[in-house]
Amino acid sequence: MKAGVSLLAVGHATSLLLAISFILCVTFDLLFPDYAMYQAWQALIPGFEWLSWKSFIIGLIEVWAYGWYFALIWVPIYNFVLHKEERH
């Protein structure tokens, strides 16, 4: 019987992926303002404004929370389906 996927591992990995992506996107917008994508972040992250340290930290916190939201939904579903498959 397989153990399933670790909630902690998926939560931290997904949150880190989103945080790194957020940092890269903000950096891209600062380097290439003609191609800025910050409007998408403003739509997805409540409280995010372009650009202050406060809104940058808010953005990091919220994308980290989105990663955990994904993990809290996906991991139990995946583990349930995995264990259901093993019974057949």
- Average pLDDT, rounded to a whole number, is 92
Number of helices: 3
Number of strands: 0
Give the N-to-C terminal Cα separation.
12 Å
Rounded to an integer in angstroms, the radius of gyration calculated over CA atoms is 17 Å
Q: H/E order of the elements?
A: HHH
Structural class: mainly alpha
In quaternary terms, these chains amount to single chain
**Low-pLDDT residue intervals, each spanning 5 or more residues:** none
The dominant shape is elongated
Helix amount: over 70%
The main sheet comes to:
none
Our estimate of the beta-strand percent is under 5%
Chain-wise SSE layout:
Layout lengths: L6 H25 L6 H7 L8 H35 L1
Helix pairs in contact: 1-3
Keywords:
88 residues, mainly alpha, 3 helices
Please describe what this structure looks like:
The chain is mainly α and 88 residues long. Helices cover 76% and strands 0% of the residues. It contains three helices and no strands. α1 runs antiparallel to α3 (53-87). The mean pLDDT is 92.
